[in-house]
Design goal:
about 180 residues; 4-stranded antiparallel beta sheet; 3-stranded antiparallel beta sheet; elongated; single chain; alpha+beta; SH3 type barrels; binds zinc ion
Length: about 180
């Protein structure tokens, strides 16, 4: 027997490989998905389950949609970081409930160190997300090239990095927003 869209052969070599791949990225394979390229997984960390493409599990390109959805209703932050290596110093803008664990998710190269320059608090994650998107759209032509930043951000966050000359501009954006939120 082999895997089909509606049935998993738990003893076949392919499934054993899928179980291993899932485990390596914090998931448990629990059942079939809507096609032969998808499966249903449970997140070890939060316990939620969802369907994910096998290829995305392999590349670790997924997030928990349930956690992401709830986080939009909960407090969050927009942060501005200065990240430094011997070769390059750059700025990073992002949003997260927990900045430290978000930075861990970037998987920066070992030699990199970072400092939080500014954090602004939002009562709702969706407002933090919208503000962050607005900033990135406004300055999208100023961003550092993602191909270049992937050398330093080994997993995530390489899309929204800025050169140091953007410091004043980004600070002004964040400070203006902070003032607006306090009103
Ligand atoms: Zn979750």
């Amino acid at each position: 027997m082999a895997n089909t869209a509606t049935k998993i052969d738990w003893d076949c070599a392919a499934t054993k490989k899928h179980i291993k791949e899932a485990k390596a990225v914090g998931l448990t394979l629990i059942g079939v998905g809507s096609s032969r390229h998808h499966r249903t997984y449970q997140f070890l960390e939060c316990g939620h389950s969802q369907e994910i493409a096998l290829a995305h599990v392999r590349d670790e390109r997924f997030i928990c949609n349930t956690c992401e959805e709830t986080s939009l209703d909960h407090p969050s932050n927009v942060y501005l970081l200065k990240i430094k290596t011997a070769e390059l110093t750059w700025l990073k803008v992002g949003y997260a409930k927990n900045v430290v664990s978000r930075v861990r998710g970037y998987t920066l190269v070992k030699e990199a160190s970072y400092r939080t320059i500014k954090t602004i608090k939002f009562t709702q994650g969706r407002d933090a997300r919208d503000f962050e998107n607005m900033v990135h759209n406004k300055y999208r032509k100023k961003k550092l090239l993602r191909q270049r930043m992937r050398k330093y951000h080994l997993r995530e966050g390489y899309n929204e990095c800025y050169p140091m000359r953007m410091l004043d501009t980004l600070m002004q954006e964040l400070e203006a927003k902070e003032k607006e939120l306090k009103r």
